[in-house]
Write a structure and sequence with these properties.
The chain is an alpha/beta fold. The protein has helices at about 15-25, 65-70, 85-95, 130-150, 170-175, 195-205, 225-235, 250-255, 265-270, 280-290; strands spanning about 5-10, 30-35, 40-45, 50-55, 60, 75, 100-110, 120, 155-160, 160-165, 180, 190, 210-215, 240, 260.
Length: about 290
Amino acid sequence: MKKDFKLFCFGFGQVAKYFVNNLIKNNYNFDLVTTNTIATKLITINNLKYKSYFFNYNKFDNNLLEDLNSSNKVLVSIPPKNGVDLVLKTFDKNFKINKFDWVTYLSATSVYGDQNGEWVNENTHPKPTSKRGIARLNAENNWLNFYKEFELPVHIFRLSGIYSLERNIIKRLKIGELTIVKKSNHYFSRIHVEDIAEVLKLSIKKNNPGNIFNISDDYPCSNREIAKYASSLIQIETPIEITPNDLQSSMLKEFYKDSKKVDNKKMKSFFKYNLKYPTYKEGLDAIKNQKI
């Protein structure tokens, strides 16, 4: 049976896996190719057999090139390494050929930096404060340059903080790994991975090259508010609060430097999508009910 398309995933973390499983569940007929950082191998996911090629920094299995060049759609979920987008740096010639009809780069809302708790949308001027945010913005600009120069059908998804059945605040509470930082006017946004997967699926049939979309839920709030709700759900004591100066993790320090509320109106309007988990409450309720 002739396949509808061939999807090449640079990186195959939880977002890409949820996306692929969503396509399978909805009876999409496609071939899949992915990359990993260890070795080329054949794998099966939900009865779909696919090849995963070795790709790590500037080293890769040369057989990857043929599969990349014969793909219709490309999902890039590998974050920059040492400030560099390895995918575009390593395979720029392949993307200049431009035989693709859908290229999605997964970025992050860290590109907005600190906005003092104010709302941001896709027209807000990015001002990243962290090395990760700066690298993400540089990568976005490089991909959008390929759209302008080579008409590569790129669009950018800026993802808010991702949570899922496998990775969530309830699990961290149960194993004592949750830290609550006391800081006024600290807002951040999040998104359930199932909602990301659904928007990715919708974008296959309806996308607008050269555009940026915030992928976020409807309700930005403090980490403290979510922790209190999660604690009450599983009837566990809320962890003691600390100050930002008490943090040991550089990643957490970066996280608490930025405060913003991410607007998702463009995503919901363009894709005509109603979120499955519009706030953290629906998401955490579903996670608890699956006994996580």
